[in-house]
Amino acid sequence: MAHNYLLEIGLEEIPAHVVTPSINQLAERMASFLKENRLSYETIEKYSTPRRLALKVIGLADKQEDISEVAKGPAKKIAYDKDGNWSKAAQGFARGQGVSVDDIFFQELKGVEYVYVKKFIAGQKASDVLKGVKDVVMDMKFPTMMRWGTNDFEYVRPIRWLVSLLDDELVSFDVLDLATGKTSQGHRFLGQAVEIASADDYPACLKAQKVIADASERQAMITSQIDALAAENDWQIMVDPDLLEEVVNLVEYPTVFAGSFDEKYLAVPDAVLITSMKDNQRYFYVTDKNGKLLPHFVSVRNGNSEYLENVVSGNEKVLTARLEDAKFFYEEDQKQTIADYVERLKKVMFHDKIGTIYEKMERVSLIAQFLGQKLGLSAEQLADLKRASLIYKFDLVTGMVGEFSELQGVMGEIYAKLFGENADVAAAMREEYMPTSAEGALPQTVVGSILSIADKTDSIQAFFSAGMIPSGSNDPYALRRQALGIVRISLDKEWDISVPLLHEAVKFAYEQRPDLYAKINPEANYDLILNFVSDRVFQVLNRKDLRRDALEAANGNNQASFIAVKEAAASLNEHALDADFKETIEALTRVTRLANKADHVMDHVDQSLFENDSEADLFAAYQKAAADFAQKDYAAKYQALHDLKDVISAYFDETMVMAKDEQVKNNRLTQLSLLADLTKAFGSLDKLNIK
């Protein structure tokens, strides 16, 4: 007989951003618990609101699956003592399996007889097993934890009630001093306590108390009401998916409403108004059909439509206060100049172990110019890059960014345009921060892209130099994200950028202005940085359509540019199904293994020391492959190495590399080292799985 099981954890209000990951975690823990305890089920339904996390397990088995199995014990010779009685080892084995020594039998395995027993464990009733759900509840982990009362126990918020029902039967357990029951709580203001008679009644019981327990149903209600409001007023209501999810997790019974603000505030940039509404107040903003911002907003009330006009009025007053501040700062900020703001940055610390923001901009300017020249920017682009790099943090000391910190960069672009900077310089103010997440949008302009790479390069070098290196999950300065950004921008623009090139840029900046590196060692932890960025390259390029070993091999050359790693991995991936791929890689890796044994490489190959034709053949084949090798694309590079396969095999058939004659040996190792250097274009070929 199949059953339905309900678990509800009632809490004080949970932060909205924690609700969805928490209910997902609870469902995963419940699924693991049921699997570990051999309780089969059909599916798990998830319910969540700011005040509860709940699951309903559908089609739960009546009892655990029975266990019937054969267990292997010690060897027969160990099972008896010297007097022919059962040894302690045999007795302990039988006891551990829940049987007696009388149940032991022997069976041969690979010529040796071992002790075996057959054991049968009858499954427990589901109602008994489910008492262990207590551990599922107590083992939950959250990004923020708190204690309450006199307990040491930590949870996301204090637990106020627990419901645990198998159909209509109470499954008893307790968490701290709180026992499970059948009573849940309705909406904090519109509902009351309600008894859940059966697990099947759960959603309906709560709905009667003005709680929509299903998050997807709340979302559907909100979007439906928004659509109706938009149609009624001929609006476009901009529904951001992340904000929608947050709003869904802020309410238990949603009612959408619209409010307005004075049109005079439309003189403030749209980005400021949208931030005030969306980020600060959790409102959806409104535009006309052409995308022009309108003086209206849409929000969601946690309740019904009664006295809604009071709610609208209150929200309008709160927003007006925010917009009045924004208008004031916008007007006041324009009374200064960019030069005024840059001067202030001389007294603003970036980090006390690194220096000021002004010093950072000067370092970044030098790094950016070096990269710009290496990447072939025009004189005009270099001029724009220099201007942008010397002012790009100026908006940090404006009143607007001081009040709305999330607008850093955005206000930089807006103010730069107002102060007469050209479009590329202004855009770089915003693009320097991009990408703002692992998968975030990338800079579009050349100037903004190089400035972003230069800034991130400086930050990584500075923090690594100061010993503030990410470890485990600890990365307070988001250096992993910044390294990801460098890699993603370089690949997006198809620039030939590598960690060694970035290191050259840092050294160039140091040589030009050593005074800017008083607290930063430009050589510090270079190997750590090399591997740190290489890990991000792997992370960016690791895709389902790319063999993992091909990427690991290509990424083994952490001296290569990021685009070279990508192309090398793609080439190896493409040829992995070739009939002779295994033979080709085996021949090349044999070369590299022997080349690695060379402790003395000569400055050239002495052909007079060749002792057989295969040596001359290999050298001729090498010279042919090496001709313009660096200029070849990866298809041609692979073909050049592939064409060496047969001549390499013939060479090893006829040549003893580690000859007794020291000169001959070193000459052969030198030749193999030259050939091995060509394979480095594809990284570490020994990482390929060719078995």
TrEMBL record:
<dbReference type="InterPro" id="IPR006194">
    <property type="entry name" value="Gly-tRNA-synth_heterodimer"/>
</dbReference>
<keyword id="KW-0436">Ligase</keyword>
<comment type="subunit">
    <text>Tetramer of two alpha and two beta subunits.</text>
</comment>
<keyword id="KW-0648">Protein biosynthesis</keyword>
<dbReference type="InterPro" id="IPR015944">
    <property type="entry name" value="Gly-tRNA-synth_bsu"/>
</dbReference>
<dbReference type="Pfam" id="PF02092">
    <property type="entry name" value="tRNA_synt_2f"/>
</dbReference>
<comment type="similarity">
    <text>Belongs to the class-II aminoacyl-tRNA synthetase family.</text>
</comment>
<keyword id="KW-0963">Cytoplasm</keyword>
<keyword id="KW-0067">ATP-binding</keyword>
<keyword id="KW-0547">Nucleotide-binding</keyword>
<protein>
    <recommendedName>
        <fullName>Glycine--tRNA ligase beta subunit</fullName>
        <ecNumber>6.1.1.14</ecNumber>
    </recommendedName>
</protein>
<keyword id="KW-0030">Aminoacyl-tRNA synthetase</keyword>
